[in-house]
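Hey team,

Filing this mostly as a record. A colleague (T.K.) asked me to run one chain through the structure pipeline before their review meeting, and I want the input and output archived in the tracker in case anyone asks later how it was produced. No errors, nothing strange. Just documentation.

Input sequence:
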Amino acid sequence: MAAYTTIDDPSAHFHTQLYTGTGSSRDVTNDAHAGNFKPDWVWFKTRNIVIRPQSFDSSRGVTKKLHQDKTGAETTDTNGLTAFNTDGFTVGSNTGVNSDTHNQVAWQWKANGGTTSTNTTGSLDSVVQANTTGGFSIVTWTGAGGNRTVGHGLGAAPDVIIVKNRTAVTQWGVWHKDLGDTDNNLRLNSAVAEIDDALWNDTVPTSSVFSISGATEVSNNSIGYCFAEKQGYSKFGKYFGNGLNGNGAFVYTGFKPAWIMVKNTSLADYFWVMLDNKRNPTNVAANGLSANTNEAEANTPTDFGIDFLSNGFKIRAVNTGYAGGSTGNTLIYLAFAENPFVTSTGIPTTAR
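Output structure:
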């Protein structure tokens, strides 16, 4: 009989780190359960003041910054993330990563330690670093025009792909397996509902490639973050709003969540909501941050309320659109584990 999960310690693949900014260059040491955690994609947000979210990855290299809440091209910031370390990262004086005396959060994913290789599987060559155990790869490619395929290196079909053109002012594109149509898309930098804007050539990703059109968002000098579900560690799915009564959907993930991001795909003007177990150590988890705004963290149970459980999460929000949703609304989510519901040796996790 196969083990329930092959990932007994999810903190070897994903980690949330809280720290207080100093305003000057410093090392941030991760406190991951698995020991030293060297990240490959780091997503920063200052929690208690209005500052844009920003991210860096080891494929593009240190100092190369993208803002998730805006359409701007990649910029070079010598005071942003300046090193990926064996046990964390180094940041400079940029307020988005190290604002003096302010609370910071860094969400981090591990790929392949910054070691990339050329992938020739698709019709367009790509440069890939992949963590096939954790189901995460970072993919870059150049080239424009027409419908193409791009190798992603996961060895399994991606369930979520997040893309951005690095050199052009474009929207962020998000493909999720539970959107309403093969070619539908969400905007990471926007609160719009799902739209059909033909980024994906109306083609579902395979275990080796994903498809792109000639749209600017996915052409020329682009980057993609690809995720494939791994039992007991990650889950990408959907649930439905049930009328805003405080006793919302229970979503089974097969693990105790460490991080959840939710988006209402039916209604516009409702933010991407991000919750994690470090900023929300007790239920109801309601310290929400948004991917698509520069707003500070807000503790709003009516908008963002979710219970983190041993095997999934339970919606407690009661307001239209956000984590709760009106009756019939579809909400998609991305979730990563703190602990699997049952380890590979049969040990169950416990609830909060």
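Quick notes for T.K.: The chain has a mean pLDDT of 94. The two ends are 29 Å apart (CA to CA).
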